[in-house]
């Protein structure tokens, strides 16, 4: 369990969007974004949402009281780019709040394949939980 938390923490050190904005030749690397876990479900105000999707074909298992209810994916300046949030019915909403150089909608299906392959539903006892596993799969599939 401790290893997975350290893995999540080490994935994130540089803001990929700032190097692009400064004209750097580095490509967008979503695995360098920060992942924060929230103990409560999050539903951003509608004026902040650029796009939103329901992850069709996926339901969360029963989340325990300590399990994260939402995941915030942000850059180093703490600008929120994506939020994954559990609904009361066990579904997952994905909110895009910031600009990304990839089409998130086209990456959701491959991310769901990863979730099933990695068996995220069995990660409920992991501190990052099922939603943390889902967030990592999504980031892995956001490459340009």
Architecture overview:
The chain is of the alpha+beta class and 144 residues long. 29% of the residues lie in helices and 18% in strands. The chain has 4 helices and 5 strands, in the order ααβββββαα. A 5-stranded antiparallel β-sheet has the order 1-3-4-5-2, covered by helices on one side. A hairpin with a 5-residue loop joins strand 3 and strand 4 (80-86). Helix 3 (104-118) packs across helix 4. The longest helix has 15 residues, at 104-118. The radius of gyration is 14 Å and the shape is globular. Residues 1-25 have low confidence and may be disordered.
Helix proportion range: 25-40%
Please give the largest β-sheet.
5 strands, antiparallel
Low-confidence stretches: 1-25
N- and C-termini, Cα separation: 30 Å
Counting helices, strands and paired strands, the structural category is: alpha+beta
N-to-C series of helices and strands: HHEEEEEHH
Measured on Cα atoms, how large is the radius of gyration? 14 Å
Q: Provide the residue-averaged pLDDT.
A: 80
Strand order of the largest sheet: 1-3-4-5-2
Shape: globular
Number of helices: 4
Q: In what range is the share of β-strand residues?
A: 15-25%
Number of strands: 5
